[in-house]
Amino acid sequence: MKKSKKQYNRSFAAKMTFILCMTVLIVFALIYSVNIYRAATSILEKEKESAATKVSLYSEVFGVMGVDLGLKEFKKEVSELISKDDTKSSVFLLDKDGKYLVNEAKGEIAETYITDARKNHSEDLEEIGRDMLDGNDSTRVMVYNDKKYLVSYAYIPSIKCGVAVSKPYDIIYEKMMIGLLRTVLMLLVTMVLVGFLIWHIVRRRTQPIRSYAKSAAMIAEGDFDTPLKKAASGDEIQQLGDSLENMRVSLKAYMQELTQNTAIRQSMAKELSIAHDIQMGMLPHNFPSPPEYKDVDLFAYLQPAKEVGGDLYGFTINDGKLYFIIGDVSGKGVPASLVMAITISMFHAVLQSAATPTDVVDHINNAIAPNNERNMFVTLIAGELDLANGHLRFCNAGHDPMLLLHSESLEEIEMASNLPVGLIENFPYQMNEADMKPGDKLLLYTDGVVEAENPDKQLYAIDRLVAAVEKNLQLSSQGIIEMITDDVRTYANGADQSDDITIMSIHYKPE
């Protein structure tokens, strides 16, 4: 689920507040834990000191009273004195035989401390009584009748008695709990105040970030003119704002440039598409074949590597002769397509004067070479086939050799070595001649066929072309070309086409 901007803002501030509050809470908890421990220890120590002080005071008073008074008067005076003291403490006296002289908790009884201890399952009372009558004084914990007491005791030598003051731990715990509650309350109040302070600080410090987040969201939606409030804090938040502003300006400029470039590319793509259609329109697509043309079956195929290319082919039949041309302009793209247009136009123009293949090549060469500052050139073959007798005249200007296909074999036609057209004006091109037998086929192609690459950058090569054609000599002109293009496509296996591909097949089949 997509969160709203407001949820994101609250989430950030809440997380920051929570983290800081938890940090402060842990620190305060540690501090207050130490204070609570100290307070509890202090309360316990004070209780011990208080009990010891009372025992010391009683020892002095009882020692004086015991010498001057008889036993009955002594017990009475002791009871009255104790009753005036802290009622939360209990006092008991033991004589030298271990009998209670006074036991505030039980009244006047003649029971010994040993009997009392065993009756109430208190080994601590036995130890205290024994230690006290041995002349020792101390403060310790006593468990009596499953209740816990703090006992401070001493021995009074003048009257040979022991005196002890006991206080229930419940009362001591109550004081500790009151102190603990006060501490916890102070902790809670402190946490509320600190939490509010942290929340206020975090919210104030994150205000620029929330503003930046809102502006960034608007920028992401394409509003590059959104106002950006800068924080003059001189820290990372201001640096973030400056970076966001730089990003906004850069994105705005980039989007403007991208829009312009996209429009230019779309215009260029449209123009190249039109150029492609014009270039393809310059090539003949009505191929001579039976029954309209009984002596010849011709088919050609051209696939540019880009929108427009530099390969070309052309043909025309005039006075019983088939004039044809196939060529490859150096380079690719628009420059090559312009030279291609000149070449194909010159081919058709020269044929108006019934010239030889050499005349055709001469005229094309002398049209391109004089002003060829970019040193572009064209490899081509121009030929003439006499449909009456199969006599072939042709001129090769640096192009790949032609293949002559018979019914059961094929051969590569020997040609004179001539320069490509466009390099040297008035170059003396030589013409070759050959004879085609009925049923023979003439196969012409550009280097885009044999130089096609697979994903491993290996070339299709002439040997593979010859092997493929040898297996399919009986196919028609169109069938042979479709077979070759399919084989090249299979060999490429998805690799990008690196050069224009053009193939022409002429089947001589007189009646």
Summarize the structure in short.
This protein has 511 residues and is of the alpha+beta class. It contains eleven helices and 15 strands.
List keywords for this structure.
single chain, 511 residues, alpha+beta, five-stranded antiparallel β-sheet, rod-shaped
Structural overview:
With 511 residues, the chain is an alpha+beta fold. The chain contains 11 helices and 15 strands. Helix 1 (5-68) packs antiparallel against helix 5, helix 3 runs antiparallel to helix 4 and helix 7 packs across helix 8 (357-368). The protein is rod-shaped, with a radius of gyration of 58 Å. It starts with a helix and ends with a strand.
Structural class: alpha+beta
- Give the oligomer, counting copies of the same chain as homo and different chains as hetero: single chain
Radius of gyration: 58 Å
Cα distance spanning the termini: 79 Å
Instruction: Report strand %.
Output: 15-25%
Order of strands, main sheet, comes to 2-1-5-4-3
How many helical elements?
11
Count of strand segments: 15
**Considering DSSP H and I runs of 4 or more, what fraction of the residues is helical?**
40-55%
What sort of overall outline do the alpha carbons produce when their principal axes are compared? Answer: rod-shaped
Poorly predicted residue ranges: 1-9, 67-71
Order of helices and strands: HHEEHHEEEHHEEEHHEEEEEEHHHE
**Biggest sheet descriptor:** 5 strands, antiparallel
Average predicted confidence as pLDDT:
81
